[in-house]
Amino acid sequence: MGYLASGLAHHINNPLATINTFLQLLPAKYDDPDFREKYYELALSEVERIRGLVREIVEAAKIPTGGSKPQRVEDLLQLAEKAVCGEIKAKGVKIEKKIANGLPAVWVQPQAAACLLSTLLQNAISFSPEGGKVEVRARYDDGSGKVIATVRDWGRGIPPENLEKIFEPFFSTAANGLGMGLFVAARIADLQGIEITAENKKPKGAAFNVALPVEPPAGGDSRGATT
Question: What is the assigned CATH class of domain 69-212?
Answer without folding.
Answer: alpha beta
